[in-house]
Design goal:
The protein is 40% helix and 22% strand. A 6-stranded parallel sheet has the order 8-5-3-2-1-13, with helices on one face. Strands 14-15-16-18-17 form a 5-stranded mixed barrel. With 422 residues, it is of the alpha/beta class. The chain is elongated, with a radius of gyration of 34 Å. The termini are far apart.
């Protein structure tokens, strides 16, 4: 009986899960979070979400925080923003947000353009870093951007900017309340009045609040991949992956370090494949790490390590150098190189000592012990001492044959000097 009830409950949940969002709420505001550089994954997410929520949404708000566009498919997103299935606003926020490059054009494509006080916008060109430059027409002759000095320059938003930012609102709730009752031209000549708040009773006082709000952001996998769209993170993951791979080689462990190396190199590879990377700077960074390994292999710190530090530092600074849209500050480059240097100085050194010093500790106690020759010692061979096989050598005239007893006279590295036992 219980099993039948459980199966019935699961069936009901399955049916409910398959219902469209509109079946759960008739009136809703949809907030689409668009943050980080606009690559193809983010553009696909934004467009598909706009199309999905359009039939049931009273208002779509794109919460924008993006320093650059990385693909010419930006034009598809501009088209979706210009001709949405529901009223759409773009809000650059919160106050730490930026809108540079292609993001400025996304802001301009919207019918309602808002920003939080303190956000930075501008650097409108290059529009994107795709294969071919795209020049959107949403700003007409670009006069508004030029008048505001936002083609090459940037500004901090404190008040509306004519033709660029219509209103300044500090939060999403303020955005919603400011748009309530606004008349919009929608679907041709049809006028639509935004009704996006509801009345509620607050201890006998009638107040208004936003209707149900649905928030949309990318899934875990997409967010993990997009970590490496920051030049600093992509460069750090590259050097960390190569360093940890070297660590695994020396440590000869169970593969945990190897798994970390594979993961970080994979994430770095995604960033490198999408970002406008300066390949000479990438090669310089890898060369610098190679110089570290060269000195490390000889267990010394010399000129190669110093040159490696300089190479990695310059490689970091110019890994992606498209200021202000995409670039790495000197302090970020210094922190990354410092982290790699400390890793080699402490972690790698400790591992090598633990691995290669163990066989040499306590060998002197073998002197005077007896063993058995497994092969003829003439002058080199193999002896068995305390159940362990050792390389051995002796004088050419020793006459030691397999099975003879020997005495260890000295230890040279991993080779035993033996004499015939009396």
């Amino acid at each position: 009986m219980f099993r039948r009830f459980l199966l019935l409950a699961l069936a009901v949940l399955f049916v409910l899960a398959g219902l469209p969002a509109g079946a759960q709420t008739e009136r809703a505001i949809d907030v689409i979070k668009v943050s980080g550089p606009l690559d193809e994954r983010m553009i696909d997410f934004a467009i598909s979400t706009i199309e999905e929520v359009g039939p049931t949404s009273q208002l779509i708000i794109i919460q924008l925080d993006s320093p650059a566009a990385l693909t010419r498919r930006l034009g598809e997103l501009l088209g979706a923003v210009q001709d949405p299935p529901a009223p759409l606003a773009v809000w650059v926020g919160p106050e730490t947000a930026v809108a540079y490059g292609g993001s400025v054009w996304v802001l301009g494509a919207a019918a309602i353009r808002l920003a939080a006080p303190g956000v930075k916008i501008g650097a409108a060109e290059p529009v994107h870093f795709g294969e071919r430059q795209l020049m959107p027409s949403v700003w007409g002759d670009r006069a508004s951007l030029q008048d505001a000095g936002l083609i090459d320059g940037r500004t901090t938003v404190e008040a509306p900017i004519e033709g660029v930012v219509d209103e300044v609102q500090p939060s999403l709730s303020n955005v919603v309340l400011s748009l309530q009752g606004r008349s919009l031209g929608f679907e041709g000549d049809v006028e639509r009045i935004l009704d996006i708040t509801e009345t509620f009773d607050d201890n006998g006082v009638e107040r208004r609040r936003p209707i149900t709000t649905r928030f949309h952001e990318q899934g875990f996998v997409d967010r993990a991949l997009r970590l490496s769209l920051s030049p600093a993170i992509a460069y750090l993951f590259l050097l960390v992956g190569l360093s940890v791979a070297a660590f695994e080689f020396y440590a000869a462990g169970v593969g945990v370090a190897a798994a970390v190396a594979v993961l970080t190199l994979f994430l770095s590879g995604y960033g490198i494949s999408v970002l406008p990377v300066n390949w000479w700077a990438l090669g310089l960074g890898v060369l610098g790490l190679g110089l570290y390994l060269f000195d490390f292999q000889r267990i010394q710190l010399r000129i190669a390590s110093l040159l490696g530090t300089v190479a990695m530092l310059i490689g970091a600074r110019y890994f992606v150098h498209e200021p202000p849209q995409l670039s790495m500050a000197w302090w970020s480059a210094i922190l990354i190189v410092l982290a790699i240097a400390l890793f080699f100085l402490f972690a790698m050194t400790t591992v090598v000592r633990a691995r290669f010093s163990t066989p040499t500790i306590g060998r002197q106690h073998l002197i005077g012990k007896r063993g058995t020759a497994e092969t003829a010692i003439a002058p080199d061979g193999v002896v068995l001492v305390d159940g362990a096989r050792w390389k051995a050598n002796s004088g050419r005239a020793s006459g030691i044959e397999p099975g003879d007893q020997v005495v260890i006279a000295a230890v040279e590295g991993i080779t035993l000097e033996v004499d015939p036992a009396e």
